[in-house]
Design a protein that fits this description.
Layout (H helix, E strand, L loop, with lengths): L1 E6 L9 H7 L4 E3 L9 E3 L9 H5 L4 E6 L16 E2 L20 H11 L3 H8 L5 H7 L1 H8 L4 H15 L1
Parallel strand pairs: 1-2, 1-4, 3-4, 3-5
Helix pairs in contact: 3-4, 6-7
Length: about 170
């Protein structure tokens, strides 16, 4: 699984998980949408949830957008490829610990890898962070259930159970 990041550079570079992953050659950073390759785009504004079916479609490239949550509007996600939303997952990073959907770029890529059946890639990505294993522990059950789904509709059904529990 190739991991690519459209890097905006508007967050603190010392805390940027995408930059850290790039230093370890685990992701490729791209400074413009034009130079960012096509792939499955992780997009919270997407109308379809990420599912194992996306991997069966032959795509082995994930693309994430690394930008501040304050500027993460739909326009920023104008990247080539099928756009997919991550299902319900809880952040483990120190800034947003326990907050649903407020994932770092590293958490988003790792969560997507797990859903697509690439847990070893997820573990490699998260191994660079002290809190990385916590993300997999907090989300172990939902990640395994999402990975066992046939398609986006099943992922949304499983997600609905977690959202009902969260309310």
């Amino acid at each position: 699984m190739e991991c690519h990041v459209r890097y905006e550079g508007d967050d603190d570079p010392e805390k940027c998980t995408a930059r850290k992953l790039a230093r370890f050659d685990l992701v490729a950073l791209h400074r413009s949408a034009r130079e960012t390759p096509s792939g499955i785009v992780l997009d919270p504004h997407a109308e379809q949830a990420l599912s194992p079916a996306d991997r069966r479609d032959g795509d082995n490239r994930l693309v994430a957008l690394d930008c501040s949550w304050e500027t993460a509007d739909a326009e920023r996600f104008s990247l080539r490829g099928p756009h997919r939303a991550l299902p319900f997952l809880v952040a483990a990073n120190p800034v947003n610990y326990g907050t649903p959907f407020q994932l770092t770029t590293a958490e988003a890529l790792a969560g997507a890898c797990c859903v697509l059946g690439e847990r070893d890639v997820a573990e490699a990505l998260l191994s660079k962070f002290r809190w990385g294993h916590t993300f997999l522990e907090l989300n172990d059950e939902p990640l395994r259930r999402y990975a066992a789904c046939a398609d986006s509709a099943e992922v949304v059904a499983v997600q609905s159970e977690y959202l009902a529990e969260a309310d």
